[in-house]
Amino acid sequence: MEKKGFWQSGHKPTLFSAFLYFDMSFMIWVLIGPLAVIIAADYPMDPVQKANLVALPILGGSILRLVLGFMTDYIGPKRTAQFGMLFTLVPLIMGWKFVDSLDQLYVVALLLGVAGASFAAALPLASQWYSKEHQGLAMGIAGAGNSGTVISTLFANRIAQHYGSWEVVFGLAIIPIVLVFIIFTIFAKNSPNRPAPKKLSQYAQVLKQGDAWVFCAFYCVTFGGFVGLSNYLTIFFNTQYGLSPVRAADFTTFCVIAGSFFRPVGGYLSDKIGGAKMLTILYAGAGLMLAAVASLPALPIVITMLFIGMMCLGAGNGSVFQLVPQRFGSELGLMTGIIGAAGGLGGYALPLILGQLYQSTGSYTSGFLILSAVTLGSLVLLTVMQARWKNKWMARGGKAQMDGMSDVSHVNV
């Protein structure tokens, strides 16, 4: 039987709907990141408090991804996504009308995590329509919805300055999420090949497999690095280089574009040359760029380095999720939630590392050096795991094809 090409297979309206849902949700999830500098004018904060404010939505997303991952398996990704969009209205309304203190703002920031949890429904919704040879591109296209970050970094501060209020940005964000809810409800469909729900005991069995934790570590670095930097770079540019809130957010936008739009490229190239090989290149590139940023060079140079580093991290997200369906195809909804939660925890930790070390040392150098070391450490872990996967596969009499990771579904490490 002749295999269908990507554009002749799957369900395009669902793929587009998943992208749109993820895109608008991501826009809302990172809304506080670019606004943090303006918000600080109303609620003065030290470096650690600023870092905590932009990190809380990522923590909320990390926790709620487990919930939405569970719901995706039991009630389906479409209903889960619809629930997520409706619940997203809660923090938007609160931020628009009901914030009078920094503590209340922290609550809003945490609840914005439900928008970040969209990952756990959007990716399974799209990927379940596609065969394994097209998983990388399908999940890359749906996952490119993290480009919603660009909308926030480009327009949030401009809107706040135009209206003289950052709160109005939350109110205006209600409009696109409602429109997307309507489009999504009309066009998105669950795949007929959706796996049957698993029992809780079966979920526990998945977590006993070492591969699950390895993929969590991989995504903790790629996605955590991308979303953590997306939320923190406006503060970094404002503090280190003295840029205005709008200009700082504009340079953040430039860096975020690289990570967002190279995610599907990472998935596509992983389909062609193998996810492990692609990740090796990307971890090395990101680690070297972060180490170079630690020297805090002139603004044009640091922007170039961050652009390349974010490009590697964004493409790495696509590479990781080219591998996941091959290893955990029947538990994809659950594993998407678990691995996505790990990525969120990485994104939560990154601003706190940079904020804490800046407050204690007065410099961002040590923070970026630590981020570089963690990224290069992931490269070492990947190398070790490739060898273990290859040895186990060959011990079972199989032909090693580790470049494409086609044997990963047979390996339990």
Automatic annotation (TrEMBL):
Q: Which GO terms describe its molecular function?
A: nitrate transmembrane transporter activity
User: Example GO biological process term?
Assistant: nitrate assimilation
Membrane spanning residue stretches: 20-41, 53-71, 83-99, 105-125, 137-156, 168-191, 212-236, 278-295, 301-320, 332-358, 364-384
Task: List the residue ranges forming a coiled coil, or say none.
Answer: none
Q: Which GO terms describe its cellular component?
A: plasma membrane
Q: Does the keyword Membrane apply?
A: yes
The record ties this protein, via PROSITE patterns, to:
MFS
Q: Which domain of life is it from?
A: Bacteria
Keyword set, alphabetical order: Membrane, Nitrate assimilation, Transmembrane, Transmembrane helix, Transport
Q: Where in the cell is it found?
A: Cell membrane
InterPro entries given in the database record: MFS (IPR011701), MFS_dom (IPR020846), MFS_trans_sf (IPR036259), NO3_transporter (IPR044772)
Q: Write down a Pfam family by its short name.
A: MFS_1
The Major facilitator superfamily (MFS) profile domain is annotated at: 13-390
Broad class of where this protein is predominantly found? membrane
Instruction: State the annotated membrane topology for this chain.
Output: Multi-pass membrane protein
Gene3D superfamilies to which the protein is assigned, alphabetical: MFS general substrate transporter like domains
Q: Which PANTHER family match?
A: HIGH-AFFINITY NITRATE TRANSPORTER 2.3 (PTHR23515)
Q: Which family does it belong to?
A: Belongs to the major facilitator superfamily. Nitrate/nitrite porter (TC 2.A.1.8) family.
- Per its record, how is this protein called by name? NNP family nitrate/nitrite transporter-like MFS transporter
Q: Tell me the classification of the organism that encodes this protein.
A: Bacteria, Bacillati, Bacillota, Bacilli, Bacillales
